Amino acid sequence: MHHRIRSAGLAERLMSADEAAALIQPGMTVAMSGFTGAGYPKAVPGSLAKLMAREHDAGKEFRIKVLTGASTAPELDGVLAEARGMELRLPFQSDPALRSQINAGEIDYIDMHLSHVAQHTWFGFFGHIDLAVVEVAGILEDGRLIPSSSVGNNMTWLRDADKVILEVNEWQPDGLEGMHDVYYGTALPPNRKPIMLEHPEDRIGEPYLHVDPAKVVAVVETNAPDRNSPFNPPDEASTRIAGHILDFLEHEVKRGRMPEQLLPLQSGVGNVANAVLAGLASGGFRGLTAYTEVIQDGMLDLLRSGVLRMASATSFSLSAPGLEEFNANVDFYHDKILLRPQEISNHPEVIRRLGCIAMNGMIEADIYGNVNSTHIAGSKMMNGIGGSGDFARNSFLSIFMSPSTAKGGRISGIVPMVSHVDHTEHDTMVLVTEQGLADMRGLSPKQRARLVIEKCAHPDFRPLLEDYFDRACRDSLGKHTPHLLGEALSWHQRFVETGSMRP
Ligand code: 0RQ
């Protein structure tokens, strides 16, 4: 019997990745595991991409619709994009080849809140799921599945897809078993019940995934590592952003608005977010918790040093050295990390109840605090909104951060009007750049604008923003949220035409 495949019935469905991929037909809606570079299928997508390329060479169309938890890795999004094998993709991506096809208008991409994906599937909004390809760490004697390094939407994919291909990845550490909490209690409206999760460490589900064995059409063995892009070491801007956030959190504790152990932290993806975690390590805090989406390298450091007591997420998002650290010390992390389905890790009800501190990156913010997390110049997709909206709207504190300029100072991160809105002024409380921190809570639009320009804008762009705002206050049709409509997006237009927002 195979070490990782202990169900005799499912062991009989063992086959090669090529044989399994041949079960996928053009036009199918295929749901795959994977959340950032963790827990995605490592073999079947590659075989499928080869099959697609052969069909395309023969002049035949072969494209599928691909649903996942979030972004994946070159072995999934990369190969399928290069094979021109996707007609639709949701809900989050970060692969360069896929991104360029999205921005060339060749693939339909649906960018959506990550907490919505499972329920939109249950509600039937995406139509029928033909097949699921899900990586697991093992199969028990009774057919239950040991989840892999991400849970994402796997509970939903395994339950709602007509057919299932399982990839059993021997590379995943044995110690993952027991680290998951898969909640099967969500009913559809109007019969929903409260999610009884009151603390980040609460368990409300079970450590295993279920699948109807009759639906499993293939089991494929793999032995391949997860893959995430490495983080840049924190640069000066990120370190200063982290410093502003730490000062602010200490101030909030002193004012009695937050306990000494703070409130559960949510930290987004990206270099700035990772630098903030590194900053927390030296901030003197102890015994904190995280209720977040992804565990990145910075969180492992915090768990090791005791700054963080435990972390709840839906996935790992570790660089190669981070993976090595986790796999070598999985016993240490076993009772300090909980992985949940993404509709629970990102659940608005739970985030509101726990009172999270949300810290997410942004592309740009405008003077009133509207935030664009996704689109360059209003039309070019970067990654997607991910879970930032789930947390921003529902957290106790919602912080957005970015360097004050991008692309060598040619672009201002603070603009008169954002070119795309992901988080409205009603969802954002604090903006931070390396220049400073604007606490917009309790302020009216005009008060917000003065503060954001003063604290967050780069000195090169500050006088231009002051000038815009002064003239808007004088000439705007309404004086509540003053704007000069003919000029509000002129900075972006200048960037499109000249490559710079500078006049
Ligand atoms: O470009 O890669 O070519 O150098 O954007 O920018 O400053 O390194 O910041 O890595 O933190 O990413 C919003 C993209 C920030 C991220 C975003 C360019 C810049 C650089 C990256 P290069 P930085 P970060 C939960 C949370 C949405 C999803 C989310 C993100 C690149 O935070 O995807 O929050 N957020 N999920 O040069 C043109 C501007 C720019 C700009 C930055 N104004 N104009 N380019 N860049 N600002 C987790 C999950 O959901 C999984």
Structural class: alpha/beta
- Silhouette: globular
Report the biggest beta sheet as strand number plus sense, adding barrel if it closes: 8 strands, mixed
Number of helices: 18
Radius of gyration equals: 23 Å
> What does the average pLDDT come to?
96
**Fraction of helical residues:** 25-40%
What ions, cofactors and ligands are bound?
ligand 0RQ
- Number of separate strands: 25
Low-confidence stretches: none
Estimate what percentage of residues fall within beta strands.
15-25%
Spatial separation of the terminal alpha carbons: 70 Å
Keywords:
503 residues, single chain, binds ligand 0RQ, globular, alpha/beta
Mind explaining what this structure looks like?
- Helix 3 (44-57) runs parallel beside helix 4 (74-82) and helix 16 packs antiparallel against helix 17 (462-475).
- It is globular and about 75 Å long.
- With 503 residues, the protein is α/β, with parallel strands linked by helices.
- A hairpin with a 2-residue loop joins strand 24 (430-433) and strand 25.
- Keywords: Hydrolase.
- Residues 10-221 form the Acetyl-CoA hydrolase/transferase N-terminal domain.
- GO terms for molecular function: hydrolase activity.
- It comes from Arthrobacter mangrovi.
Topology diagram in text:
Elements: H1 8-11, H2 17-21, E1 29-32, H3 44-57, E2 64-67, H4 74-82, E3 86-90, H5 96-103, E4 108-109, H6 116-122, E5 131-139, E6 145-147, H7 154-160, E7 163-169, E8 216-222, H8 236-254, E9 265-267, H9 271-281, E10 288-291, E11 294-296, H10 297-305, E12 308-313, E13 315-317, H11 320-328, H12 330-333, E14 337-339, H13 342-345, H14 348-354, E15 357-361, E16 364-366, E17 371-372, E18 375-376, E19 380-381, H15 388-394, E20 397-401, E21 405-406, E22 411-412, E23 414-415, E24 430-433, E25 436-439, H16 445-456, H17 462-475, H18 490-498
Parallel strand pairs: 1-2, 1-5, 2-3, 3-4, 5-7, 7-8, 9-15, 10-12, 11-13, 12-14, 15-20, 16-23, 20-24
Antiparallel strand pairs: 5-6, 16-17, 18-19, 21-22, 24-25
Helix pairs in contact: 3-4, 4-5, 8-9, 9-10, 14-15, 16-17
The structure holds ligand 0RQ.
The site of ligand 0RQ has 31 residues, from helix 9 and strand 15.
